[in-house]
């Protein structure tokens, strides 16, 4: 069997001191995550982050920064390479049907997410939040995506 990590994206969206979070089911449990998902064929990491945020929350966003790359060897044996972005919430579209498995989108305070027993989908949820709260901000051009048409 060939080892193949899963390339994912996540988006940290803050508005008025609250963060856009996704309540979803994972293995029969209710958990919380930043809007996140897998990179699809023929899309950039930027496009994936914007698309996943819309599909999971109904929010149109604009990327404003890059937070970093996070690697997680999950208990299921899968290695996830997560590229986390920072975004501004532009507008909500209540007509968007949320992805399968998504219960709802919520705006949560950092205190709620850092409280004991908070059901984060993975350790990356709180690590990403901590890095954002510490002031980490990288420019979007930190991520290079080759355009074969150039």
Overall description:
The chain is of the alpha+beta class and 150 residues long. The protein has one domain: Nucleoside Triphosphate Pyrophosphohydrolase (Alpha-Beta Complex), CATH 3.90.79. The protein contains three helices and seven strands, in the order ββββαβββαα. Strands 1, 2, 3, 4, 5, 6 and 7 form a seven-stranded mixed beta sheet that branches. The longest helix is centred in the middle third of the chain and has 13 residues, at 45-57. The protein is globular, with a radius of gyration of 15 Å. The N and C termini lie far apart (36 Å). 26% of the residues are buried. The mean pLDDT is 95.
Note the beta-strand portion: 35-45%
Number of helices: 3
Q: Report the major sheet.
A: 7 strands, mixed
N-to-C terminal Cα separation, in Å? 36 Å
H and E order: EEEEHEEEHH
| CATH architectural category | Alpha-Beta Complex
Mean pLDDT across every amino acid position: 95
Query: What name goes with the CATH superfamily?
Result: Nucleoside Triphosphate Pyrophosphohydrolase
- The helicity comes to 10-25%
CATH topology, what is it called?
Nucleoside Triphosphate Pyrophosphohydrolase
Structural class: alpha+beta
- The low-confidence runs, each spanning 5 or more residues with pLDDT under 50, are none
What's the gyration radius in Å? 15 Å
Overall 3D shape:
globular
Number of strand elements: 7
């Amino acid at each position: 069997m060939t080892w193949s990590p899963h390339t994912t994206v996540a988006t940290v969206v803050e508005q008025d001191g609250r963060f856009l979070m996704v309540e979803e089911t994972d293995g029969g449990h209710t958990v919380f995550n930043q809007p996140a998902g897998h990179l699809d064929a023929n899309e950039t990491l930027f496009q994936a982050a914007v698309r996943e945020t819309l599909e999971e929350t109904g929010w149109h966003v604009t990327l404003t920064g890059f937070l970093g790359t996070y690697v997680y060897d999950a208990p299921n044996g899968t290695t996830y390479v997560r590229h986390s972005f920072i975004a501004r919430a532009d507008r909500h579209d209540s007509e968007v049907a949320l992805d399968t498995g998504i219960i709802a989108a919520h705006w949560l305070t950092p205190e709620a997410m850092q409280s004991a027993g908070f059901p984060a989908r993975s350790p990356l949820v709180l690590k990403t939040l901590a890095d954002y709260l510490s002031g980490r901000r990288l420019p979007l051009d930190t991520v290079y995506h080759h355009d074969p048409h150039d």
